[in-house]
Amino acid sequence: SVGPGAVMGLVVVALVLAAAEFYQSVRNVGYRPAALLGLASVGGLALAVYWKGLEAYPLVLGLAMVGGLLWFLFGVESEHATANLAITLMGVLWIGGLGSFAALILKMPNGDAVLIGAVIGTVAYDVGGYVIGRTTGQSRLAPHISPNKTYEGLIGGMILSIVVTTLVLNSLPGVAPWTESMTDALWLGIAVAVMAPLGYLTQSFVKRDLGVKDMGSLLPGHGGVFDRFDALLFVLPAAYYVADLVLY
To answer: Within 13 A of 85's CA, how many CA atoms are on the CB side?
Structure first.
C-alpha cells in the first residue's frame, strides 16, 4: 500500500545489513575485505537495477571489480589482496547480485504481488521444514553442512511451500495477477520449493567453512538479517523469471 519506492528502500536497507554481517563474519576469521566498497556496491547495485533494470548489472559489477582492484593496488588493504578481493566480490555478487532481483520484481506490473508471493512461499518453506523436521525428522540430509536438516523436513517444507503459495496467492483478494490462475501460483510455489532449500544449504555450507554459527546477531534467537534471508536470495531470481514467463 505504501508503493514500490518505499518497499525498495526496505530492500536496500536489508541487503546492506546482510552484506555488513557477511563482511564482519569473514573479517572475524582473518579475511580483510574492502567492506566499504562492498557495501556501496550492494546498495548501489540494488538502486541502479531499480532505476535501469537488467542493464545496470554489468556496469555496477564492472565498477565494483575495478574499484576493488584499485582499492588493493593503492594499499588500502594490501595483505593477501587476491583472496580479500575475491571475498569482497563474493559478498557483492551473492547478496547484491541475487538480492537486486527484488528491484527487478518491483519494476514489474503488480510487482508487489510477485514479491509477496516469493516471501510467502519462502516463509512457508522455513516453517514447514522446521516444524516437520523437528517432529518427524530422522534421516539427516547433509550432516557435514547442516546437522539439523533432515529429508523429512526438506520434503515437508517443499510441500507446504507449494500448497501455501498456490492456495493463499490464488485466494487472497488484492494480489493480482496470482488470483487469475491457480496454475500460475503453482509454478511459483514449485520454483520456491526448489530454490529455497538450495539457498539455505548454500549459506550453511559457507558458515560451516567459516566456522561460525550465525552471520549476525541482530535478531535474537534467529541470528542476523543475512541468516533470515538466505533462502530468499535464491528465491528472488526464480520468482522474477517465473513471473516473467507465466504472467507477462
So the answer is: 17
**pLDDT tens digits along 61-71:** 999 999 999 99
Contact, 42 vs 20, CB < 8 A?
no
Question: Tens digit of pLDDT for each residue in 168-210?
Answer: 887 766 566 776 778 888 999 999 999 999 998 898 888 888 8
Decide if 121 contacts 192 (C-beta within 8 A).
Answer: yes
Mean pLDDT of 210-232: 77
How many Å apart are CA 75 and CA 61, to the nearest integer? Answer: 21
> Nine-digit cell at 51?
532505476
Counting other chains too, the contacts that 219-223 makes at CB distance below 8 Å and 24 or more residues apart are none
Strand partners, 219: 223
Please answer whether residues 246 and 238 qualify as being in contact, where contact means their C-beta atoms are separated by less than 8 angstroms.
Answer: no
- Buried b / exposed e over 175-201, threshold 16 CB at 10 Å, is bebbbeeeebbbbbbbbbbbbbbebbb
Amino acid present at 163: V
At 211 the pLDDT is: 84
Q: Crossing angle of helices 4-28/182-210, nearest 10°?
A: 20
If we measure between CA atoms, which residue out of 244, 238, 235 comes closest to residue 109? 244
| Threshold 0.85, pTM exceeds | yes
Q: Which grid coordinates belong to 193?
A: 520449493
C-beta of residue 218 within 8 angstroms of C-beta of residue 21: yes
pLDDT tens for each residue of 5-22: 888 999 999 999 999 999
User: How many angstroms separate the CA atoms of 98 and 111, rounded?
Assistant: 17
